[in-house]
Amino acid sequence: MLAPVNLLLITALAAFIALCVLGSLARSGIAGIRAALWSNVLTIVALVAFTGQTRQDGWWLSIMVANLLMSGGICLFYAGFRQFLGLAVPWRRLGLGLALLMGTLFFFTYVHWNLAARIVAASGLHLVILASLGYQIWSLERKRGWRYSEVFTLALMVTAVIGHAVRMVVYGADLEQSVVMMSPTFWNVLFLSLGVLVMPSLTLGFILMIHDRMLAEREREANIDFLTGVLSRKAWWGEVQRLGAHSRRGRASVAVLVLDIDNFKRINDSCGHAGGDAVLRHFATLAATALRASDVLGRLGGEEFVVAMPGTSLQDARLAAERLLAAVAAVPCRHGEHVVSYTFSAGIARWDDEQSLADVIERADRALYAAKQGGRNRVVMDTSVPV
After folding, report:
1. Which of 10, 71, 349, 361 is most buried by a 10 A CB count?
2. Residue 303 designated active-site
3. Does residue 386 sit within a domain?
């Protein structure tokens, strides 16, 4: 059987490796990483300090200081995880729980020696913290869909909670009679393995969740137009191709609108590029508000936007575009102290089974050109196919 001291040192090495990996992610700026880093630092020092429990004259270090560091580490990990999830950290309650634990450990070390009581107290704090974290992950992620990293981390937390609960029962019921925690008995080694492996394992789960978030942010940067917040041209094209395939299987009509802000160069010349950017953001916001959740809005480039409206006839798409015209007229753009009034023109085409998306965009562009030629600030439907 592996000696408890060797197990502690091996786990300290594993925690150090996890710390190095986590440290490489610190510059990502993701909330919670700094607290998790310090959590692992405290854990590593605590693991080394725990090895001193083989000497009675080292109890102040191996019991009091080691438990303070280990429990402080789990509290910091809890804080970092809540920050990562966008939740407030209950620092006062964490501090109170840590103070109560240390008072209990002091009493059962220097006033009335009782190893089992110390273990029950320490496991109780860890159990409450890990159960709370697990519940928060479950309650948040079940609303937006589970990913591997969340399932992995939650499974670790559930395992740790069960382990701490069993540990409290075993020692609380006096089933384990060891005087020193470092005695190489079955229960000591089993629960020590569980306890010391929690932090490195949870850190691995945290790293996986950070990795998923970084991937999601990179995907968002690639798919979202940074100025207006709507889909980029490439992302819109891919999304609408999938939408079109689904709609055609159900024989549903898809209307495509190409929208272009009128006289945009004049806006840039009179208000500057910052004013032009403000108009683009204003228009994108109004369009996103006016459209349905099922409609797909994107920016083709410059001052040109595009919308795919599934299950929509040309007449209904025209009504939607005219409502947006009215909204733009009613709610002018504000840029600093200036009010910028503008209009837009729109061309609409229907996506037929036989035509590609590029063909539909071309027909909508022709309708848009007709709207521009007709005086701007209007909507024109493509009539090259039956309505």
Report:
1. 349
2. yes
3. no
Q: Do 38 and 152 fall into the same domain?
A: yes
Given 188, 222, 256, the domain boundary residue is 222
What are the tokens at 196?
A: 């010391």
Nearest-CA neighbor of 161 among 74, 224, 245, 81? 74
DSSP 8-class letter at 325: H
Q: Where are the alpha helices (DSSP H) in the chain?
A: 4-23, 33-50, 59, 66-84, 91-106, 115-144, 148-172, 186-223, 233-249, 264-290, 314-330, 357-373
User: Which pair of structure tokens corresponds to residue 121?
Assistant: 């107290």
In DSSP terms, 333 is beta-bridged to 340
pLDDT in tens, 98-146: 999 999 999 988 888 888 888 889 889 999 999 999 998 888 777 767 7
Dig out the tokens for 144 from the structure: 């937006």
d(Cα 317, Cα 294) in Å, to the nearest integer? 13
Widest CA span in the chain = 94
Q: What is the CATH number of the domain that holds 36?
A: 1.20.1070
Residue 299 corresponds to which tokens in the numbers above?
């920016």
Predicted confidence (pLDDT) per residue in 147-164, tens digit: 888 888 888 889 889 988
3-state secondary structure 223-260: HECCCCCCECHHHHHHHHHHHHHHHHHCCCCEEEEEEE
**How many structural domains is the chain composed of?**
2
- Annotated catalytic residue: which of 303, 304, 322, 362? 303
Structural domain boundaries, residue 252? 233-381
Residue 80 and residue 150 in one domain: yes
Residues 216 and 237 in one domain: no
Residue 206 and residue 309 share a domain = no
**Residue 300: C-alpha distances to residues 10, 234, 270 (Å):** 56, 9, 24
